[in-house]
Hints:
This protein is of the alpha/beta class. It folds into two domains: 1-123 and 292-324, Isopropylmalate Dehydrogenase (3-Layer(aba) Sandwich); 124-286, Isopropylmalate Dehydrogenase (3-Layer(aba) Sandwich). Helix content is 47%, strand content 17%.
Amino acid sequence: MVKIVIDCFGGDESPRVNIEGSIDALAKFKDLELVLVGDEKQIKDELNRQNYSSERISIVHAPDVIGCNEKPTEAVRKKKDSSLMTGIRLLREDDTLAGLVSIGSTGAIVAAATLRVGRVKGVARPTLCPLLPTMKEGTIVGICDSGATVDCTPIQLYQFAIMGSLYMEKVFGVKSPRVALLNVGTEEEKGDELRKEVYQMLKNEPRINFVGNMEARNLLKGDVDLVVCDGFSGNVMCKTVEGTAIEMFKMMKKDIYSSLKYKIGALFLKKMFAKERAFLDYQNYGGSVLLGASKVIVKGHGSSKRVSFAKCIEQAYMMETGNLNPELEKILSDAEPAKQA
């Protein structure tokens, strides 16, 4: 059995979507067992509204919640009875637990995982790796980092490339993932001193398929499988893409309703619009995995719905069954720059 801890609070629609997504994941994976953490009464009240089998679900009571507006390190230290910190404690103390899924505070999750759970041997810094769809149907692109480390060192970016590449290969079956470095131009000499140094490190690393620099405008073209960047740049890029997609659909809807002619035309294109909306909806792509943590950690959007939360659990399940962390430890301990870190 694969046992995963579920933080049932911290999201916009918690605990409902957390529990609904958990039930969907249990139905999909017959060897999955979940530990639901949070206010026991609220969890049971929500479970009573669902149609499910209780055989592979257990509940651990945690009365407190870490809010997204709280200072992460302070909340991690003070709110020991929160659903997140209780889940982290269980993960650290119980070797049978494979990972944790949460849609709570990103800062608190990263801080708690780094300080309490620890890192894979050889990892300088864990990285958040979300997924986005590309214009080549059926393909995705991973982004390392998207907010865990705002200011990065060369060795950290180098390791993000290795961890992200292995993640795309092991979990999503991408053979020889194409890895690019986010930069202000595609030429080798472009960028600041950090990017120039990392370029040379990646260029000379035989364990990854490095394809050079990439400009942000080409993120969704489908020409690369993984983009390496610092957490500040990656977070801005991800949120810009997501926000642009949302506003574009709002504008299209407004224009369609502005004219009878447009409304009639939209009826003929209804299926196409639905397909495009589903394609660009981040809810269909799960959350960000925290690569480099010693146990599986998946951070979903705070606004996650049922389908998105179920996808987050699926990511955690696939990471564990894909044996990712042992592979990471082996590769990073053998990689030459890691020995020099």
